[in-house]
Design a protein that fits this description.
Elements: H1 2-10, E1 14-16, E2 28-30, H2 32-51, E3 56-58, E4 64-66, H3 67-72, H4 75-78, E5 80-85, E6 92-94, E7 100-101, E8 104-105, E9 119-122, E10 126-128, E11 138-141, H5 146-151, H6 153-160, E12 166-175, E13 190-200, H7 205-222, E14 230-234, E15 246-254, E16 257-268, H8 270-279, E17 285-287, E18 292-294, E19 297-304, H9 305-316, E20 317-323, E21 329-335, E22 346-350, H10 356-369, E23 375-377, H11 383-393, E24 397-401, E25 416-421, E26 427-431, H12 435-443
Helix pairs in contact: 2-9
The structure holds glycyl-adenosine-5'-phosphate.
């Protein structure tokens, strides 16, 4: 993990928020490469979960949330973790994460055994709307994106004219005042979720739970996380929310252990029922075929953007020993991202920066590809060093514009470039005119 965290900073994937002031615990900023990676992940999720389906529509709810919403959902009462204080070093700890030694709980900070009783700590961030700081103006930063979907269920149903089963999807920020943010971006206080609430008839809930589990496993494979590194935990009844009839956790083998990436939960009709009862507004559904009126049930695949991004980086990270043309061996650090996820798709390199014809041709190739994919132009340093820099950034393809491209070694090679493949380091000669057709299907 240390090497991954260091690469993330060195190459501009992820920085600590407020770093020059000592850092803001549990908050992270994404740099130029990180933001591209994140965007690719969210765009692909949106494409397969919304755009390529007839039965899902999207929405984008507000982050500031009406207190009544989170009262009705149960968050105000129960969205808490058990907190313990260490009387020796004053550390605040999550009771269920304290290690035991010889059956006795010990503070992970100082090893002290003098711990307070566990008390519930509500994880929601509170704020006030307007100038008055009183209970009437209290609002929350949303702890999950799901609740705005439930609250807008009727509006979306009426305006989209969808029939059950159908889903409402959302990607957006969520906030939790975690007692112990840890493992880099794995558990933070501000993060993003990609959530789908898939509404259905009560009889279809269990079947759809299994359907969505499979869909989501396919998704991870399609972004380069192999099935063999994913674990499916069937959450036992005792650990499930009381209203859930079935929950799976999709877990990934992170360097710090097997940990949850996503939850797929059958939440029954709990949420809509709670909001209908609390608001007094009907949130039911009339089935025109059966003439039945009922509150829809819901299956929810809920993924974390940041956790998936961390899994992508962990999965892609590789170090290998390679020998250069002079026979010298060196360590190559390479991020083997799936081309679909890679922040930069193609590096464009004129062989020499002081040959205007090479530079002009390279700029032409850059302009050809740029409207279709993220391209990085680099003319600085030896070509081998430029390749290595892109290996570390996870760029799957490199294009070198050389004297052959200019036709100086015969007409046959004119307007061709060297295409270098990141993973195999193999090179081939490709016509500039064929580049788009060759690269586009691989990076989409
Ligand atoms: N609407 C259901 C829900 O929010 P959850 O299991 O609490 O369920 C869903 O959260 C996903 O959100 C998790 O699987 C994880 O990927 C992500 N997530 C939750 N808390 C997080 C945190 N503190 N930091 C980063 N990601 C988090």
């Amino acid at each position: 993990m240390e090497r991954i965290v260091s690469l993330c900073k060195r190459r501009g994937f992820i920085f600590q928020s407020g770093e020059i002031y000592g850092g803001l615990n549990g908050c992270w900023d994404y740099g130029p490469l990180g933001v591209e990676l994140k965007r690719n992940l969210k765009d692909y999720w949106w494409r397969v979960m919304v755009r390529e389906r007839e039965d899902v529509v999207g929405m984008d709810g507000s982050i500031l949330t009406h207190r009544a919403v989170l009262k009705a959902s149960g968050h105000e009462e129960t969205f808490s973790d058990p907190m313990v204080d260490c009387r020796t070093c004053k550390a605040r700890l999550r009771a269920d994460q304290i290690p035991e030694k010889n059956g006795v709980k010990q503070c992970p900070n100082c090893g002290g055994k003098d711990l307070t009783e566990a008390t519930p700590f509500n994880l929601m961030f509170r704020t006030n709307l307007g100038a008055k700081q009183d209970d009437d103006s209290l609002a929350y930063l949303r702890p999950e994106t799901a609740q705005s979907i439930f609250v807008q269920f009727k509006n979306v149903l009426d305006t989209s004219r969808k029939k059950l089963p159908f889903g409402i999807a959302q990607i957006g920020k969520a906030f939790r005042n975690e007692i112990n943010p840890r493992n880099f971006i794995f558990r933070s206080r501000e993060f993003e979720q990609m959530e789908l609430e898939y509404f259905c008839a009560p009889d279809d809930g269990m079947k759809l739970l299994d359907y969505w589990l499979e869909e989501r496993l396919k998704f991870y494979e399609n972004i380069g996380i192999p099935r063999a590194k994913l674990h499916v935990l069937t959450v036992p009844e005792a650990d499930r929310a009381f209203y859930s009839k079935g929950t799976y956790d999709i877990e990934y083998e992170f360097p710090f252990g097997v940990q949850e990436l996503e939850g797929v939960a059958y939440r029954t009709d709990y949420d809509l029922t709670q909001h209908q009862n609390a608001s007094g507004k009907a949130l039911d559904y009339f089935d025109e075929e059966t003439k039945a009126r009922f509150i829809p049930h819901v299956v929810e695949p809920s993924a974390g953007v940041d956790r998936t991004l961390l899994a992508l980086i962990c999965e892609a990270y590789d170090e290998e020993t390679v020998t250069d043309e002079k026979g010298k061996s060196e360590t190559r650090i390479v991020l083997r991202f799936h081309p679909r996820m890679a922040p930069i798709k193609v590096g464009v390199f004129p062989l020499l920066k002081n040959k205007p014809e090479l530079v002009a041709k390279a700029r032409e190739v850059q302009a050809l590809l740029r409207p279709h994919m993220a391209v990085f132009y680099d003319e600085g340093g030896a070509i081998g060093r430029r390749y290595r820099r892109q290996d570390e950034a996870g760029t799957p393809f490199g294009l070198t514009i050389d004297f052959e491209t200019l036709g100086e070694r015969g007409d046959e090679l004119r307007d061709t470039v060297t295409l270098r493949h990141r993973d195999s380091m193999q090179q081939e000669r490709v016509k500039i005119a064929d580049l788009l057709a060759l690269l586009l299907p691989q990076v989409r």
